[in-house]
């Protein structure tokens, strides 16, 4: 039997001409030739599959090439992929139903229809999308139908299509759809492909009559619950590696709108919602733009990974940005511009969802029960507002717009009443942002309302987030607009810059509400004693406003703050303080995390920079809120301990004078504390212990460490290695104390030993006693940033002992493990090495700012040791993929590195070690 097959009609909007995707003449003629002579099914299937597979490969290549040259043309691209699938599926159906298992003339009840369902039914396919099929029969699945289905599926599988399929009768569809909303949704998106269209018509009629009509509320409820569960699983739309399909503001949210619209309003396209006055023409345009952008991203993801990948991981963000034509400009990488557009589109999807659901609520809202209406208290709203479905709404739009200040007052009323703002009110605000002009921004009452939103209602983050989403914040503070949805392409920041700013202010509010008193005792006490809240709030709002340009964001931010703060109504002194806080908002964090705060010079220099307790208090609260606002897991006890120590010492210096930091005083106090702790020791042993150490030892460690070292040193032999491991829960780290005879390179070997057991060193210091013993203290964390569990300490100790004894060569072992993960290789971190001879009285401070990787610290310390550099202490600060390793060092004669030639030689050696290690890690 010769097959008489013709291709489905192509849509008008394909990415390239239909005949470039499939040559209809060639396909039909070759299929006819294949089926002209009788042949066993296996032979025919093999020949047909070979033909169709070549056609599929050629068609996919044509679509990809056309999309690569028009990388934003997502709609015609997904239509093209769908039409190519239609051609292949219908050809396979024709072969199976007409040639392999033809219908006998006398047969009855053999009506079989093939439908596309799900996304394929919508006519939307990405390169690696599933082909979801429904084989439909009127009353029963006949044996012949089963054979047709089986033969067809074998062909499709041989074509390497990812097929999802079901074989059902009309009754099956109704029964299963009634109990499963996923099946019901798939049936909602059915599209007839080929076969008996009459049975498809019957299904449509029965679905509308017996399943869809009257169940709108339960369908909407199920879809919204499904959406909420998905959002909780995927996280907020500002996660740094978002899921394009399932994430908040992603394609699934747009698809949910389509499903609900079709189910409730019986529309075929979202465009029909404009006619029904659910969306405005402008909102529909936003829908199209967001949908097209997200689909383009999804298609590029599939083409890059050659699999149905929906996750925009860091490495893929770079590739997708390049494919979509983004370029580096204005001091920012192409990927950052791309991700800013991504997050802005995700926000737009959220706005559209909110508008749509509110309209839906208005249509389907049920009246409250009588008793609830009698006894429930509705909040009293000011004149000009009303309560609609429990939300703050505008009573008279014309009256509202007659006074532009109402564009701010509506947010104040929302906070005052504790009510959410009605989406219709939000639409009105968004449509009239042009009223917020220069005169508006200079208006004294507008300034008052804005500052009251930040300071008077206890939850400014709620108003700020909504104002930001609607564009009001950027209209009132135009300097804020560039950082809206701005992504910082690194592993440290979990949020976009604008969301980070709101998180910072949210943390401040939580401290004020005493929600973090146990976790943040100093910040809580500072706010309890009283600070200038207005100055601090404006500084928090503006602290990162200079990001994204080709210069230091702190310097640029201070310049911007100099213009914005007066416009917000601050007096000259307050403006100066805000400018200082923005300029130096990283100072305390840098001092605490990148410098040895046990060195009196560190605290002395910081105190000189801060100058007053008032500024210290403001900067401390800003610093704590800033670090906590970076991400959910950024703040920990280690950072808390560092900030607390720096605050207390600096406050003491500012209140009692710099002499309070005197080395001799601190040494005497430390020795006295040790004598108290070792009260059961003999006077001779106490005297020996207090006399064997140089001054830096006494000021560099807490008395608890002094006690540990005293016990380790007591009676030690020349060849002994003694180790003490102790979880330091107050600092979220494990403290590792070593005692052994001192020799060159010992610090590097210790670093190697710890690296081999997967320990991340966060702080380290080593001292040499007068009788020749090295006393070294390291604070380490596991890969999760936590202290090592007690059960892991014996293995930790054993590996350290073997390495220090020379049984394991750290360098060789580390090289085999020194690899970067693929998703982390896209980050660029320029290497910067600085020498500072002023920050410490007796050491040169070498600061190495570079790309973090396993084994880096060992490479650096090994290089320093081979250059005869004595390392007294190391402070390690990690910011995602960036690390700042700070070393306090002296040369082999105990002197600082003053000469430029020595510094340059050492810098070149360190850079060479970094470069070589980076090559090894990336290979």
Q: What is the radius of gyration?
A: 35 Å
Average pLDDT works out at 89
Strand content: 5-15%
Strands of the largest sheet, in order across it? 7-8-10-9-13-14-12-11
Distance between the termini: 58 Å
Main sheet record: 8 strands, antiparallel
Number of domains: 4
The class by helix and strand makeup works out as: alpha+beta
- List the uncertain runs: 365-376
Helix segment tally: 41
Using DSSP, what is the number of strands?
14
Q: Helix fraction?
A: 55-70%
The geometry reads as: globular
Which SSEs are present, and which pair or pack?
Elements: H1 18-21, H2 24-34, H3 41-69, H4 74-100, E1 113-116, H5 118-122, E2 131-137, H6 143-158, E3 163-169, H7 170-179, H8 181-188, E4 191-195, H9 197-212, H10 216-234, H11 251-265, H12 272-275, H13 281-305, H14 314-323, H15 334-364, H16 370-375, E5 385-388, E6 391-394, H17 397-402, H18 406-417, H19 423-431, H20 438-442, H21 444-455, H22 460-470, H23 472-476, H24 497-512, H25 521-529, H26 533-542, H27 553-567, H28 572-583, H29 587-594, H30 600-610, H31 613-628, H32 637-656, H33 663-677, H34 683-691, H35 695-700, H36 703-713, E7 721-728, E8 733-741, H37 746-756, E9 760-768, E10 773-781, H38 793-804, H39 810-817, E11 832-836, E12 844-851, H40 856-866, E13 870-879, E14 882-890, H41 900-922
Helix pairs in contact: 2-3, 3-4, 3-6, 4-6, 4-13, 7-8, 7-9, 10-11, 13-14, 13-15, 14-15, 18-21, 18-22, 22-24, 24-26, 24-31, 26-28, 27-28, 29-32, 30-32, 31-32, 33-36, 37-38, 37-39, 37-40, 40-41
């Amino acid at each position: 039997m010769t097959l008489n097959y013709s291709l489905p009609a192509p849509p008008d909007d394909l990415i390239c001409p239909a005949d470039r995707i499939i040559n209809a003449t060639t396909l039909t003629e070759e299929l006819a030739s294949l089926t002209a002579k009788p042949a066993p099914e296996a032979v025919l299937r093999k020949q047909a599959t070979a033909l169709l597979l070549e056609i599929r490969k050629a068609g996919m290549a044509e679509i990809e090439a056309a999309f690569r040259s028009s990388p934003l043309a997502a709609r015609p691209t997904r239509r093209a992929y769908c039409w190519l699938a239609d051609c292949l599926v219908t050809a396979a159906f024709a072969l199976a139903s007409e040639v392999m298992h033809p219908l006998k003339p006398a047969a009855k009840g053999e009506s079989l229809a093939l439908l596309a369902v799900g996304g394929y039914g919508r006519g939307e396919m990405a390169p690696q999308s599933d082909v979801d099929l429904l084989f439909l029969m009127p009353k029963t699945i006949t044996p012949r139908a089963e054979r047709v289905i089986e033969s067809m599926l074998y062909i499709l599988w041989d074509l390497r299509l990812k097929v999802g399929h079901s074989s059902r009768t009309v009754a099956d569809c109704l029964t299963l759809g009634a109990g499963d909303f996923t099946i019901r949704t798939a049936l909602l998106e059915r599209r007839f492909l080929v076969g008996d269209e009459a049975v498809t018509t019957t299904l449509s009629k029965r679905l509308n009559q017996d399943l869809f009509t009257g169940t709108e509320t339960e369908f909407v409820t199920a879809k919204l619950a499904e959406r909420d569960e998905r959002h909780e699983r995927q996280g907020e739309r500002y996660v740094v590696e978002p899921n394009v399909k399932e994430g908040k503001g992603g394609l699934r949210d747009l698809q949910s709108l389509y499903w609900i619209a079709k189910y409730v309003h019986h529309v075929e396209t979202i465009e029909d919602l404009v006619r029904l006055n659910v969306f405005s023409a402008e909102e529909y345009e936003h829908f199209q733009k967001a949908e097209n952008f997200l689909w383009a991203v999804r298609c590029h993801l599939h083409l890059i990974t050659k699999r149905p990948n929906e996750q925009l991981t860091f490495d893929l963000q770079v590739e997708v940005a390049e494919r979509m034509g983004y370029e580096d400009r204005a001091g920012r990488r192409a990927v950052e511009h791309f991700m800013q557009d991504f997050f802005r589109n995700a926000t737009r999807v959220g706005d559209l969802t909110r508008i749509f659901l509110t309209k839906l609520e208005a249509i389907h809202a049920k009246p409250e029960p009588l008793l609830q209406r009698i006894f429930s208290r509705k909040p009293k709203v000011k004149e000009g507002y009303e309560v609609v479905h429990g939300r703050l709404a505008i009573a008279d739009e014309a009256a509202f717009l007659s006074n532009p200040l109402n564009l701010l007052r509506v947010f104040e009323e929302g906070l005052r009443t504790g009510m959410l703002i009605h989406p219709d009110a939000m639409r009105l605000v968004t449509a009239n942002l042009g009223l917020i002009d220069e005169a508006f921004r200079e208006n004294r009452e507008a300034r008052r309302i804005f500052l009251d939103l930040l300071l008077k209602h206890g939850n400014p983050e709620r108003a700020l987030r909504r104002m930001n989403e609607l564009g009001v914040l950027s209209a009132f503070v135009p300097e804020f607009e560039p950082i809206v949805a701005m992504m910082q392409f690194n592993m440290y920041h979990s949020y976009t810059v604008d969301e980070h700013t709101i998180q910072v202010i949210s943390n401040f509010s939580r401290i004020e509400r005493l929600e973090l008193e146990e976790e943040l005792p100093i910040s809580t006490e500072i706010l309890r004693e009283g600070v200038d809240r207005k100055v601090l709030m404006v500084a928090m709002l503006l602290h990162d406003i200079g990001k994204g340009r080709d210069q230091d964001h702190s310097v640029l931010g201070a310049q911007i703050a100099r213009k914005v703060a007066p416009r917000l109504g601050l007096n000259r002194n307050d403006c100066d303080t805000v400018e200082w806080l923005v300029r130096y908002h990283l100072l305390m964090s840098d001092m605490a995390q990148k410098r040895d705060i046990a060195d009196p010079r560190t605290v002395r220099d910081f105190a000189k920079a801060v100058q007053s307790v008032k500024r210290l208090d403001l900067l401390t609260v800003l610093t704590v809120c800033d670090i906590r606002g970076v991400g959910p897991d950024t703040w920990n006890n280690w950072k808390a301990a560092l900030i607390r120590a720096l605050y207390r010492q600096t406050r003491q210096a500012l209140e009692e004078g710099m002499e309070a930091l005197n080395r001799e005083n601190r040494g005497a106090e430390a020795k006295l504390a040790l004598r108290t702790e070792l009260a059961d020791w003999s006077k001779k042993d106490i005297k020996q212990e207090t006399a064997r150490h140089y001054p830096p030892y006494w000021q560099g460690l807490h008395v608890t460490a002094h006690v540990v070292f005293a016990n380790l040193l007591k009676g030690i032999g020349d060849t002994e290695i003694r180790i003490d491991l102790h979880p330091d829960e107050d600092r979220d780290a494990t403290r590792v104390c070593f005692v052994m005879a001192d020799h060159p390179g010992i610090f590097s070997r210790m670093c190697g030993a710890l690296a081999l057991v997967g320990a991340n060193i966060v702080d380290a210091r080593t001292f040499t006693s007068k009788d020749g013993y090295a006393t070294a203290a390291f604070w380490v964390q596991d890969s999760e940033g936590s202290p090592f569990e007690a059960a892991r300490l014996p293995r930790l100790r054993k590996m350290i002992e073997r390495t220090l004894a020379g049984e394991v060569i750290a360098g060789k072992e580390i090289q085999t493990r020194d690899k970067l993960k693929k998703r982390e290789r896209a980050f660029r971190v320029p290497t910067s090495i600085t020498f500072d001879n002023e920050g410490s009285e007796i050491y040169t401070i070498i600061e190495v700012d570079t790309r973090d990787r396993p084994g880096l610290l060992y490479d650096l310390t090994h290089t320093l040791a081979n250059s005869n550099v004595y390392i007294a202490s190391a402070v390690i600060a990690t910011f995602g993929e960036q690390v700042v390793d700070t070393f306090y060092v002296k040369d082999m004669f105990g002197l600082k590195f003053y000469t430029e030639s020595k510094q340059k030689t050492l810098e070149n050696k360190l850079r060479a070690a970094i470069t070589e290690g980076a090559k090894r890690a990336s290979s």
